Amino acid sequence: MSTVTGIDARGARHCETTALGVLLRHQGIDLSEPMLFGLGSGLSFIYWDSKNMGFPFLGGRVKPFELTRNLAAGLGLELLVQETTSPRRAWQNVATALAAGHPVGLQLDSYHLDYFGSKVHFGGHVVALYGYDDQHAYLVDTEQQGGAVTTSLTSLAQARAARGPMAAKHRSFTLTAPQDLPSPREWIAPAITACAAAFLDPPIANLGHRGIEKAGKRVRTWLQRTDDPGRDLPQAALLMEKAGTGGALFRNLYRDFLAECTDLLDSGHLRTGHRLYAEAATLWTEVAELIARAGASADARCLAQAGDILGDLARMEREAMEALSRVESGSPRRSGP
Predict the structure, then answer these.
(1) Which end of the chain has less neighbouring CB within 10 Å, N or C?
(2) Residues β-bridged to residue 150
(3) Locate the DUF4872 domain: which residues (predicted)?
(4) 28-80 pLDDT, tens digit each
């Protein structure tokens, strides 16, 4: 039996930022979830469809674990990542870290976790492990999944060993903060401009603002893309709003990140980006509602309207990222007279 003491087991809206929050608070660094997401340059977009997929996928963030790598690099954190094909060594890796007093991040397939409500395979799920006994592991997951939760050691082993899209080989990781961590204000501009650069110049048309534009054209055909629109369209809408995205396909998180940044940094470009993402977040929720309505009613007009809004969003987010790409460290926000 081993349990790390002093764990702040607050759950949050998104799995990776939830785990990062647990690990960093144990290091004495308490940042909001939007700040973690933004400093990890987490926002993105992908439209993905292929012949072997049951239905198209809309994603709103960078690929699993890239956010963690970005955050660690930007903040100057020591990120120790361990992967192995051996279940025995995988468990030894986490047990050693816990015995040394370090909570551990795990990437796994949420399908196998005892407490998980939605039995869908997702190999990019991330949790924080802070203890175990003879039968159970003690984890921190999102608020939606219960925050501080337990699962059997058997189910945890299955989740870590799972293979498939986005899965990793028993990946575990720890974070160690330097003694002289700089002010968050110094991290803002590099994180924002890196995110903007990737969004504005994607390598393929399925990503970034080009991906949103493509989604606007393809979503109009979704009633013909499925043999069960009453199942697949509401499910797609649910994933946009409820599946750990924080709502609006992660745009709520990025909007709130930019709002926090405007309190720390005096930049007109930053304020422009925040205003546009506040508008975009509302529109993404409207798109999700229209997709769900189309599934329930089989009304193609709902999808046509969703496609029009996605076209507007492609232009709006491109404009927002163009402004954000010009954010500089600049002057701190001054308060008071």
Answers:
(1) C
(2) 138
(3) 155-324
(4) 999 999 999 999 999 999 999 988 888 999 999 999 999 999 999 999 999 99
Region class of 263: left (phi > 0), else alpha (psi between -120 and 50), else beta: alpha
Q: Which residues contact 73 (CB under 8 A, 6 or more apart)?
A: 79
Q: Whose CA is closest to 11, among 123, 112, 125, 149?
A: 149
Tell if the pTM clears 0.70, that is, is over it. yes
pLDDT band at 337 (very low <50, low <70, confident <90, very high): very low
d(CA 256, CA 237): 22
Angle at 306 between CA 300 and CA 311, to 5 degrees: 130
- Alpha carbon separation from 215 to 33, 77, 209, 236, 287 (Å, rounded): 28, 36, 10, 13, 11
Give the DSSP H or E segment for 67: helix 66-75
Angle at which helices 185-200 and 300-324 cross, to 10°: 130
- For the chain, strand residue ranges (E) read 2-3, 43-48, 57-61, 78-82, 104-108, 125-132, 136-140, 148-152, 172-176, 265-266, 331-332
* Rounded Cα gap, residues 217 and 135, in angstroms: 50
As given in the structure block, the two tokens for residue 77 are: 């954190």
Query: How many whole angstroms separate alpha carbon 110 and alpha carbon 114?
Result: 9
Domains of the chain and any CATH numbers: 2-30+78-176 (3.90.70), 185-332 (no CATH)
For 190, residues 6+ apart whose C-beta sits below 8 A from its C-beta are: 74
